[in-house]
Each structure stands twice: as structure tokens, then as C-alpha cells.
Design goal:
Layout (H helix, E strand, L loop, with lengths): L2 H15 L19 H13 L5 H14 L4 H7 L2 H7 L9 H17 L3 H12 L2 H12 L22 H11 L25 H9 L10 H11 L11 H9 L4
Helix pairs in contact: 1-12, 2-9, 7-8, 10-12
Length: about 260
Amino acid sequence: MNDSELKAYLDAQVKRYNCIDFIENDPISIPHRYTCAHDIEIAGFLAATIAWGQRKSIIKSAKQLMDIMDNEPHDFVLNHTKHELAAIDKFVYRTFNGVDCQYFIASLKNIYTNHGGLHKVFADGFAQTGNMHNTLAQFYNIFFELPHQQRTQKHLANVAKGSAGKRLNMYLRWMVRPADTDVDFGLWTDIPTSALYIPLDVHCGNVARQLGLLKRTQNDWRAVDELTTRLRDFCPEDPVKYDFALFGAGVNKEK
């Protein structure tokens, strides 16, 4: 396919998948349970954190975590008691366990108490660096500024060390992209969609390579940068909208 044909195909796939039907079977359904911006931010961040493996399992476990937090994630993060936090110790999703989850809650409390919240951390980081890669690297350092076990670091991508940052980039897509189709939220309007990077996973990477959009074989940050740069050829103001096209085609095993 030439570029004109590729754009037509990708745009058609975006239209097909970027719709409200997408929500039900995707982890983005978790923050969609809430209306308060802070609840959406925190529920989305925690759901994105465990978003690897089968989507049904991700959604089931994320719902369990929200139930533990009395379905008031922002209030829980800020005002939980020691007894309530102890209940988090029982939460396990694959290698993400109670120790990890307790630190994530503690770090989120620190972010909302001392840094102005998730939105402010990302918005300030982007304003300072003008680059989402550097913003993500800065966020990693802020997130782990409290004492923590080494094992917990593996559950947040460190793009400074070459990680693709799939789950963080997906979370940013949720928060930043407009809510015009009722899928993403469009909450963080001070970060431009043009600055976002593609959430690169196995499905997305496989389809991108089949289409000749990605040559690098490893799913790392260099591949993320390569693919996002290519997608900007088709939509420089919102390249990450093609996440729907690539992921949708991949998860449905389309050729």
C-alpha cells in the first residue's frame, strides 16, 4: 500500500474501533465508572498499571481493586486508614501484589498532597521539557521518591532506560485525547495530542510491521518513537488516534 492507501485504511479502522462499543471489553471501562476528574485519573492510572495479559482478567482485577477502595479512589488515596490500607495487602494481579499496590497508593497520596495531583505532574513536566519522553522520565523519578522495595519499580515503565512505556502512554491517551467519541476523556487539555506517543504492545507492533509502518523488531522506546513518527505523517495533530486501528486489527487477528 502507498501512503494514501495506508491512511485510508487506518482512518477506516479508527472509525470502526474508536467508538463507545470499544469500552466494554477494555481496561478504560474502569475509569468510565466515575464522573469526578480525580477519581477518573486515579482509577485510570491503577487500571493502566495492571493492563497486561488478558483484558477480561485485567478488568476483573481492576474492579476488585476499586471495590477495596470503596469505589472512591481519590478519597481512599487521600484519607485511608491503616486498617483500610491493610486490605490492599490482599490484592494480587499476576506479579503485582499487595506490597506493590500499597506503595502505589502511598505514592499517589504523595503526588496529590505534595505535587498537585497526576494532572499537574504531567502538565508541569511537559511545560518544562516540551517532550513527553522526558516528562515520563521525570514522572518516574517523582513516583519513586518515597522509600520503596526495589521489586515495585518494575511495575512502572522507566523510559529513560529504553522501556516502551506502553501502559503509561495508554494512560496519557485516555487522559489527553478528546472525548468526542466517548472513549477517551479529554481531561488534560493543556497537553497537546500531537505530543503523545503510541502505546506499543504486541498487537500494535505486529500490525504496524505487517503494514510496513515499523521496521524495528524490538518493542522498546526506539520502536515507539519510530512508529509514532511514521503515524504523524498521516495525522500530525493526533497520531495516537491510530492506536485504535492497530490494536483493534491486532487483537481481532485481522490480516
